[in-house]
Amino acid sequence: MDRRSVLGAGVVLGAAVAVRPAAAWAAECPVTVSEADLTAARTLFAAGAYDRLGRLLPLLLDRAEHGVRSGPASAARAAGVWVLASQLAVKQSRTASAGAYAALAGAAARRSGNAVVLASSARAAATPLRRTGRAHEALTLLKEAHAHLTAVSRPSAAELDAAGMVALTASYTAAQAHRGAAARDFADEAEDAALRLARHPHGGGRPSQLSAGQCALYRIGIHRHLGDVDTALAHAARLDPQVLPTAERRARAATDTARALLDAGDLAGAFAQLRLVELAAPGEARRPSVRALTAEVVEARPGLPGLDAYARRTAPGSKSSSW
Questions:
Q1: At 15, is the secondary structure helix, strand, or coil?
Q2: I need a labelling partner for 280 at 20 to 30 A (CA). Which of 52, 153, 166, 242 fits?
Q3: Distance between CA 237 and CA 234 in Å, rounded?
Q4: Largest alpha-carbon pair distance within the chain?
């Protein structure tokens, strides 16, 4: 095991995650981010351990800044850190920070020359662009990333995985911009890529993100943004959250289903989904956007059994922990 790793030696998966105190790393601090560091940080994000990741991320950000010019591989890892920082800022509703980190990720990804890394940075950039009214720019960026990945006649499993995820992000972006035909076309492309990937086992490295379950999850939000709540809820009903690979994804499925149920006027059903968010990843239930959903239910149906306790438990500053 690489003793220079910031996080790799300190993460133990199972019922809990234990990380060595930051002070213990000072004497081992390398100049660049290691692959073990990045993998472990991604694990924390996937588990919804946002408070813990937020405490550890500054050290990785410093290493990313110092290591980005150390070569293509180091630039790729730096981009990965900045993508994570952008994703975490999105979870915390810090849109300006998310955009700044995504810009750094994009620059590092270009330095790496890796199409998969470029795709990841493009997806990270899409959210702050959408949230600042620049969905067209986001779609342009995503189309470019998708074109890089699909230019080869026989893409690798990693390229196919990345292409499908870019297509899903593009579909969601197009739906938010009320471009229905583009949204459906991109979603169909992603589903086709997922079928191809299922026949093309991943050859090592990171596990695939793209799957039929991931496509169904995105379809909930896509059709909701297109104003077709019935179709969104039909996809939610067919999706088994247990096929989704991480706590963060299972929480996202419940969150998007809660939004669709609120649109349909089913407040009790929406609250049931919010409870599933907390069960999947307590940190997700305390996010500002999810707290806003809770507030909607509280305002409309304050007498729902368990709702007051849930609202208190997931309030900012709550002592409950995701680990």
A1: coil
A2: 166
A3: 5
A4: 59
Q: What is the pTM of this model?
A: 0.87
Judge whether 41 and 57 are in contact, CB under 8 Å: yes
For residue 201, the model assigns a pLDDT of 63
**pLDDT for residue 204:** 58
Helix/strand/coil (H, E, C) string of 218-281?
HHHHHHHHCCCHHHHHHHHHHCCHHHCCCHHHHHHHHHHHHHHHHHCCCHHHHHHHHHHHHHHC
Could you give the angle at the alpha carbon of 95 between the alpha carbons of 54 and 100, nearest 5°? 80
Residues in Cβ contact with 308 at an 8 Å cutoff, skipping those fewer than 6 apart: 298, 302
DSSP codes, 155-208 = --HHHHHHHHHHHHHHHHHHHHTT-HHHHHHHHHHHHHHHHHHHTS---SSSPP
User: Which amino acid, 286?
Assistant: R
Task: From residue 31, give the alpha-carbon distance in Å to each of 4, 70, 110, 179.
Answer: 10, 9, 21, 45
Residue type, 229: V
How high is the pLDDT of residue 124? 98
pLDDT > 90 in the chain, percent: 80
Token digits for 182? 């583009």
In sequence order, which residues have a C-beta less than 8 Å from that of residue 21 and are 6 or more positions away?
none
Q: How far is CA 296 from CA 176, 237, 281, 300, 323, in A?
A: 21, 22, 20, 6, 27
Which is nearest to 80 in space by CA: 40, 27, 29? 40
Which residues, other chains included, contact 195 with Cβ-Cβ below 8 Å and sequence gap of 6+? 212
**Mean of pLDDT values over 73-97:** 97
Q: How far is CA 310 from the centre of its chain?
A: 24
Residue 268 Cα distances to 191, 222, 256, 307, angstroms: 32, 23, 15, 10
Task: Report yes or no: 251 and 282 within 8 Å, Cβ to Cβ.
Answer: no
User: Nearest to residue 194, comparing CAs of 225, 219, 174, 221?
Assistant: 219
